[in-house]
Write a structure and sequence with these properties.
Rossmann fold, single chain, alpha/beta, 2 domains, 16 strands, 397 residues
């Protein structure tokens, strides 16, 4: 085996990193949740991801999961941090406490380890950590994966970006190059673009990339809002617009708004980083998402339903994650008008979610719903098309 590597966090980012690197290295995956640890150790994926499940079940991997961070970190040459950084609405900033905690823990048990931050952080975070811990060997390497395709996007990466703090020594620059080699060695794609830059610039790459994706979602959603309000055919307009090669016929499928774990928080964090810098567009992207949900809810409410059925809370096909999904924002707006809401979401075992009944039978769900709200269509809804309200035009996310 090439290197001893520890990965902190068994979410999308951490799982993809652990499996990718465990093909050629010895990897310890650390997570506080025992059920996740147990699943990984019996080679079952704790998240919905086709490639992850396949590699865990069928590939030879040197991978072990544990709840004991001290033990995992003390012998690691590289520690990859992939813990959550949720957006704190009161502080108007990312909560980076989980990342800071792992950094402190690693420095206590293994100060010579190279620490690679893959969690999304505010611009300037890595440099601030280097000032607080001058002895640390820090890198920042943003991830660019999609939910449900986390391992695929590491096997076939669009690019690899690695940032080093200012005035980094030759040893950390060598560590950055070696880490890039470890990633490319595990990938299937050939000729991968690898970019080295200052850590602060790498942090900005992550936030600006996700904010541009949010911008594109917001743009086509507002195009769709205009078309629906004016009784026009959205598909015709989108196709006419997107045949321009500068725009391209991709990432243009209308929805109820951008959601999921990354885009809502990353756009807000980038806006917060503009605190003393003039801008209009970044704030508009954040606000456009709220406006879209208001519009969608209004369209449903205008049908005067007694019961609205929410078909799936997940954002993407093939994903089991519905954190910050846009349909939940629409759902809350409808409930505020006193309209009954029921949910069909097979990934929820409980009988109620946010005060709404979770129905186990899709047939009963369809029968009791006057309007069915569906961010993405599935075959289950073919027989009740007249009830369905959706804005999806294409069979893709």
């Amino acid at each position: 085996m090439d290197k001893n590597i520890a990965v902190a966090g068994a979410g999308y980012v951490g799982m993809a990193m652990a499996v990718l690197l465990a093909q050629n290295n010895s990897v310890e995956l650390v997570d506080p949740l025992t059920d996740k640890v147990e699943k990984v150790n019996r080679r079952a994926s704790p998240i919905a991801d086709k490639e992850l499940s396949d590699y865990l079940e069928n590939r030879a991997l040197s991978l072990h999961a544990t709840c004991d961070g001290d033990c995992a970190y003390q012998d690691a040459e590289y520690v990859i941090i992939a813990t959550p950084t949720n957006y704190d609405t009161e502080q108007n900033y990312f909560d980076t406490s989980s990342v800071e905690s792992v950094i402190a823990q690693v420095l206590k048990v293994n100060p010579g380890a190279v620490i690679v931050i893959k969690s999304t952080v505010p611009v300037g975070f890595t440099e601030r950590m280097k000032v607080l811990h001058p002895e640390s060997r820090l890198l920042f390497a943003p991830e660019f994966l999609r939910e449900g395709q986390a391992l695929y996007d590491n096997l076939y990466p669009s690019r690899i970006v690695i940032g080093t703090p200012g005035q980094a020594g030759e040893d950390i620059r060598e560590a950055a190059e070696e880490f890039a080699r470890l990633l490319t060695e595990g990938a299937l794609k050939e000729h991968i673009d690898v970019l080295y830059m200052h850590a602060t610039e790498a942090e900005a790459v992550k936030l600006f990339a996700n904010t541009y994706l949010a911008l594109r979602v917001a743009y086509f959603n507002e195009l769709d809002t205009y078309a629906e309000a004016r009784g026009l055919d959205t598909t015709s307009i989108i196709e006419g617009v997107c045949l321009d090669s500068r725009i391209g016929n991709h990432y243009n499928n209308p929805s109820f708004g951008y959601g999921g774990y990354c885009l809502p928080k990353d756009t807000k964090q980038l806006r917060a980083n503009y605190a003393d810098i003039p801008q209009n567009l970044i704030s508009a992207i954040v606000e456009a998402n709220t406006t879209r949900k208001d519009f969608i809810a209004g369209q449903v409410i205008a049908r005067n339903p007694k019961t609205v059925g929410v078909f799936r809370l997940t954002m993407k096909a093939g994903s089991d994650n519905f954190r910050q999904s846009s349909i939940q924002g629409v759902m809350r707006r409808i409930m505020e008008k006193g309209i009954k809401v029921v949910i069909f979401e097979p990934t929820i075992a409980e009988d109620f979610f946010q005060g709404c009944r979770v129905m186990k039978s899709v047939e009963e769900f369809k029968a009791v719903s006057d309007v069915i709200l569906a961010n993405r269509l599935q075959a289950d809804l073919e027989d009740v098309k007249d009830k369905v309200y959706t804005r999806v035009l294409y069979k893709r996310d």
